UniProtKB/TrEMBL annotation:
This is Phosphatidylglycerol lysyltransferase C-terminal domain-containing protein. InterPro entries: Acyl_CoA_acyltransferase, LPG_synthase_C, UCP018688. Transmembrane segments: none annotated. Residues 1-258 form the Phosphatidylglycerol lysyltransferase C-terminal domain. Pfam families: LPG_synthase_C. Gene3D superfamilies: 3.40.630.30. It comes from the Bacteria.
Amino acid sequence: MWQHLYKTRYYKDEDFAVLIGEYENHKFTVIPLATKENLKKAFEFIYDYFYRNNTKLNLRAITKEFAGFLKENYKDKFKYIEERDYFDYVYLGENLRTLKGRKYQKKRNHINAFLKEYENRYFYKRLGKEDFHECLKLLDEWTENKEEDESIESEREAIEKVFKNYDKLDVTVGGIYIDKKLEAFTFGEYLNDNMALIHVEKANPNIRGLYPMINKLFLQNEFPDVEFVNREEDLGVEGLRKAKLSYYPDRFVEKYTVLEV
């Protein structure tokens, strides 16, 4: 999804797969895809790759568990930096589908205001390839009055890439129409049988209650049984962090940057 930004490429054999990226002229990698038995073999490939390219090892978005694996097997070879901006937010699925309880009262107030204003004028729909042009049109409408921003352009390119490769992916896309016009869309996938992963959520910010509404309806319709929902990181963006915390995460998936000493 973000290949254009991080110049990512894959290396794989029968036992593992490794992703290598580059950002601001620095190579980096992430946790390799490998079974527990092949994890050390995969990491040795990574370490050798960086050595052959005359650069020190740089691992990003490393989980606490993988950091533990490195500490156990490589002792004091690396430095570990906690990256709060990249912690994943994990919620209880039932909480987001129902918004029950006092802590979600403000969310319910926003949804009730939406229902009062748009009752019988809105509907939820699972979106297909024939609808994706409407999503991109919305993105363009919402950003046309904003200052030029590289992150906005990169996000649009990432979304467009997902849409172009929709048939090859397991993502599900949903949207809300108001007066027959698409005003919100989101997409996600099953991370495993028990967890949904939400990649993108966009809604018209001028419509009160639309964000909690698309969040709620998407999960109710497309992921009605998952116990957990991962809504990814906040990237250190103050408004995004405030919004994610307002849904009261059950826990965080801690992330670390690991650098060779």
